[in-house]
Design goal:
1 helix; coiled coil; mainly alpha; rod-shaped; about 100 residues
């Protein structure tokens, strides 16, 4: 019986060591999951920030394009008015 009791004690010790190793492994897995979750949240925040930046940049580019087009329209209108002014000046000179 002594020999069987020793074997049981040895097996219990082996089980306890394995349980300790399992606990350490589970702890490491939990730590990894937490870090992974944190990184995932961080990545999602960065994606949202990039998306917001892209939207803002697109709006700014669209506004700049509109302003450029509007500026060209105004320049064309100024040229047209200057041309009409020159014509009117020429008419005034020719009538005097």
């Amino acid at each position: 019986m002594d020999r069987l009791e020793r074997q049981v004690v040895l097996k219990e010790n082996e089980i306890n060591k394995l349980q300790g190793s399992l606990d350490v492994t589970n702890s490491l897995v939990d730590e990894f999951r937490n870090k992974s979750r944190f990184k995932s949240d961080e990545l999602e925040n960065l994606r949202a920030e990039v998306s917001s930046y892209r939207s803002r940049t697109d709006r700014e580019l669209l506004q700049a394009s509109f302003n450029s087009n509007e500026t060209q329209v105004l320049k064309d209108k100024i040229k047209e008015l200057e041309s009409k002014l020159q014509e009117q000046k020429a008419q005034v000179k020719s009538s005097s």
